[in-house]
Amino acid sequence: MDYFLELFLGGLTRGSIYALIALGYTMVYGIIELINFAHGEIYMIGAFTALIVASALSLMGMSGLSLLILAGLVAVIYSSAYGYTIEKIAYKPLRQAPRLSPLISAIGMSIFLQNYVLLAQTSDFLSFPALIKEFEFMEPISHIMRSSELVIILTTLVSTALLTLFIKFSRTGKAMRATAQDKTMAMLLGVNVNRVISVTFIIGSGLAAIGGVLISSHIGQINFYIGFIAGIKAFTAAVLGGIGSIPGAVLGGMILGWTESFATGYVSSDYEDVFAFGLLVFILIFRPAGILGRSTSEKV
Amino acid sequence: MLKIRNLHTYYGGIHALKSVSLNLDEGEIVTLIGANGAGKSTTLMSISGIEPPRYGEILFMGTPIHQMTPDRIFSLGIVQVPEGRRIFPYLSVTENLDMGAYLRRDLHEIRNDMDYIFTLFPRLAERRHQLGGTLSGGEQQMLAISRGLMSRPKLLLLDEPSLGLAPVLVQLIFDTIEKINRENKTTIFLVEQNANMALRIAHRGYVMESGAITLEDTAENLLASEKIKAAYLGL
């Protein structure tokens, strides 16, 4: 039973990270129908930024939760700036171009950012400090759950809830939904669509950075390539849940996390990806739009 | 109020508007009639800044607007209710109305305006929590006009409000347009294929044929004109 719980919570942790990244994919797709392949790199840049900031601050004697929050905050701001800039440089000039052009641009941006970090940092794995110390009250269940896992799950829960409230009730949130549904009509009602798109990239990038910082602290090492793998997995999660849907991204992330965790635990870690992508194929056969996706209807 | 001079607009490589000039005075209902594909909708999209003109100028209360972005033009008080209604299908009726008031910050007044809308169209009040996409065609048209009104427009551009509606609903929509013009002094520019209905409520009318204005007169004269009767009124 303990083993099952451990796998369950491990899956939930992985799933949370996938969900945080998948939210960015799904929001951007919802608004401009682009798969932002450079999104995984934003997550990676968030992790690197936190590592650099945390290293500098710990030299100055800072530690514990304040270090995590400060490093995380800088990472979020830095990654959001990256997300904002990428959109302006690589996607905005191609807004009127055929669908394939921004997609190619996104792949190019992804390769560029990976290699930029590779050159600026190193190709080796760097060790990442454990910014989340074990809490005392977690002692009794420490054999099935680590404190960093608890923090990851709770942070994801809070971020998702805040995002949902923002999109449901705020003025900008409504404008985002309107823009996603009919861009021209939104413009005709005074919405500055470019601003809405920028906000979407900023929020998505910030969430990815949160994921990057938390999981790096949990695992303890990073390199320039982590964004690619996490990005592909999170993209899978977004498609699984129904791309364009925010609850779908979270659900897809969790399902993917659990599948991988149980496959690793009960079968073999070699088969982790086989199960993950097998599940994707299986679900898409029966629900082509994803679990919570809307089947696309013709716009009038 | 609105002056358009020698407007040329290209739409996907096609010369859609050829030297269009027209004039709207404050408080008027002016209609633009013409066949399918004559360039009526393009005229409205040019005014709203979605299809900016290549040559010519558009002045709104003396200010040139032909190089402004759609959101700037909207903020001046020019609001379009486009063809096909374009209701946000996954926003509720109230949220659709909120989007009409997107640039307004006076929450209290927005509430009042929404109540006014609900007296104008009681059907919308009944369906206020329903998603826009689940409304019938007539209800969507009511919502589209209401959403436009929520911004308190100075100039309302209406594109084919009667399209696809049952005659009884067409009558209701046109009565409401007249009422809006009378009660709020809103200037209305009405694009219609249903020339008969449009000319009955309009003060003046323009006739458009393949991208150019071919005729301009008072609504009465146009209704009486043999040429219009034959071409657009099906008489």
Q: Give me the secondary-structure category of chain A.
A: mainly alpha
Integer count of domains of chain B: 1
Any idea of the CATH class of chain A? Answer: Mainly Alpha
- Helix content, binned percent of chain B: 40-55%
- Sketch the topology of chain A as an H/E string, one letter per element: HHHHEHHHHEHHH
* Biggest β-sheet description of chain A: 2 strands, antiparallel
Shape by Cα distribution of chain B: globular
Percent helix among the residues of chain A?
over 70%
* Distance from first to last alpha carbon of chain A: 54 Å
Which overall shape of chain A is indicated by the principal axes computed on the Cα atoms? Answer: globular
Write down the CATH class of chain B: Alpha Beta
Q: Major sheet of chain B: order of its strands?
A: 6-7-8-3-9-10
Query: CATH topology of chain A, anyone?
Result: ABC transporter involved in vitamin B12 uptake, BtuC
Largest interface: A-B, 20 and 26 residues
Give the mean pLDDT of chain A.
93
Question: What share of residues are in beta strands of chain B?
Answer: 25-35%
Number of helices of chain A: 11
- Under the CATH scheme, which architecture of chain A would be assigned? Orthogonal Bundle
